[in-house]
Amino acid sequence: MTNTNHLDDKACCSTDQHPGKPKKEEEKTSPTFLQTWGSGMVSFVMLLAGIAADQLGQPAIFQGWIRIGWYVLAYLPVGWPVLVKGWKSILKGDVFTEFFLMGIATLGAFAIGEYPEAVAVMLFYAIGELFQDAAVNRAKRNIKALLDIRPDSASVYRGGQTVSVHPEEVQIGETIQVKPGEKVPLDGEMISEKGSFNTSALTGESKPATYNKGENVLAGMVNLDRLIELKVIRRFNESSIARILELVQNATSRKAKTEQFIRKFARVYTPIVTFLAIGLAFLPYFFLEDYMFEAWLYRALIFLVISCPCALVVSIPLGYFGGIGAASRKGILFKGSNFLDLMTSVTTVVMDKTGTLTKGVFEVQKAVTMEGITLDWLSLTAAMESKSTHPIAKAITEYAKKQGREISEPEQQEEIAGHGLKGIVNGKHVLVGNQKLLDKEGIVTHTDAAREVNTVIHVAVDQKYAGYLVIADELKEDAVQSINELHKLGVRELIMLSGDKNAVTQQVAKSLGIDKAFGDLLPEQKVEKVEELKKDASRVIAFVGDGINDAPVLALADVGIAMGGLGSDAAIETADVVIQTDQPSKIATAIQLGKQTKRIVWQNISLAFGVKVIVLALGAGGIATMWEAVFADVGVALLAILNAVRIQRS
């Protein structure tokens, strides 16, 4: 088998440029069947013919130098490339590679006259290498499929007409047009009233999604039903699809502990078995009276073939690579195989509420004005919230518009983390926020507001309490399912942390079956809660969030999981795992994929070590032949590769 470079970053997408840049040239044409398998077929036919001639009693035409030459010619198509690789590795100072092991073993077999075995070992080695390449290419196909959804052109309005340009040339704020059946080239805000999109390339979900005017549509989605117009909100290099590609392409650079150990192990293991083989060939001379050099050399060569660590150094990275690919197909992006491994050990899942378990789509249920208040406090509130991107702010602004209120520009605005907003609108000092904000400012709120179960936003104007808004959020459709699945997977404790009022937080937690819930938390208090949990060394904590305020907790947790659709850029950048679909049920899917990947990896380790130890003992004892050695090396490697490929079918 070949080096694990097949599974490194450069192999991941070797023909691709940076995810945000166009390809400068077309990918190379794939090799034909004959180019791939031709040399192996020639060696195989010649080997069979040679063995048949040997079995027929070696006719006169197939003796002496003719027989040797025949097997040499059968060996060269598959053996020469391996010998060249081995020699190049030696020149680079890397002596003990699998190329070195296979080269020494087969050349040694020629030296002692075991010609058919020498050809067979190298032939099956070459076939195994081809199967390995096929498996690796299959694992990479999911990532390469993402490259196909990068649009090559965008129709942008310039100078009163539509011009087709490369998406890299489009600026933020320009208007683009997307026809039915076309891919959306850049992230943009809907100008058209409505549109239906296939989002499967980004999220793994086959069900079409409908987006209305003012909502954001992401690059890579496919417009399904009508001509739509979008206002560009991000440059091409910063678009969602570019970010996804970069995350997945870089995922192989962060290795799981098992993978790191196997790499280090192979570097130590290979020289050890080489010296053991030398000892097996020569040491018996000092202890046995009937020592025969050829017999013990043959055993040493068998030992070398069996001990080649191919099954381990290929199938284990391939297993993790397949797990990352399978997850990306389901809209779950792991930033490294180490996080895929860590997900299997999670004992405590801590979750944010808004945007994680709830839709984050708020609606104002009612607006209550205090007695004696005559000013239009709702317009002032909407003016304060108009510059915010928070879902509650959008809900208030939309509500004010529906009520026919005029929304002014705030002259001054300051956001107080975990409290709300403070500023000046039309010369009036306005406070908009939660109970903590008004308590901090020494303003007494109305008792009726305290009885509300849903979220309450208090408003004060010129230090006088003006009124409050009651806002409700909805649970996500799969929120209950996600909590049930996490419990079934053995997660010991589910905890919800929220900045929302405690009454709302407890109500949501009870309806979902969450073990513990804490409301009225500031961002720093969320950090304190997680730090408190981390004092228990037996816990492995995953935190799930979506907002910019969640970024510190995402960084603190053992595994940070961000909701990538609605989530802020800060949360996505900080997280270790990104869920593109915004579905909390994908947390359980991520854990299941991690467990399946780890199970397959350990199956391969057990298979490789178990078979090799048995056949090594038989080979050293003179019971196993070179044919058994071929199975112990190439056969086990192929079985391990086929087992690793299973994760891609999950």
UniProtKB/TrEMBL annotation:
NCBIfam families: ATPase-IB2_Cd (TIGR01512), ATPase-IB_hvy (TIGR01525), ATPase_P-type (TIGR01494)
Keywords per UniProt: ATP-binding, Cell membrane, Membrane, Metal-binding, Nucleotide-binding, Translocase, Transmembrane, Transmembrane helix
The P-type ATPase A domain, residue ranges: 150-249
EC number in record: 7.2.2.12
CDD domains cross-referenced by the UniProt entry: P-type_ATPase-Cd_Zn_Co_like
Reaction it catalyzes: Zn(2+)(in) + ATP + H2O = Zn(2+)(out) + ADP + phosphate + H(+)
Natural source organism: Algoriphagus aquaeductus
Cellular location(s): Cell membrane; Membrane
Leading EC class: translocase
Protein name per its UniProtKB record: P-type Zn(2+) transporter
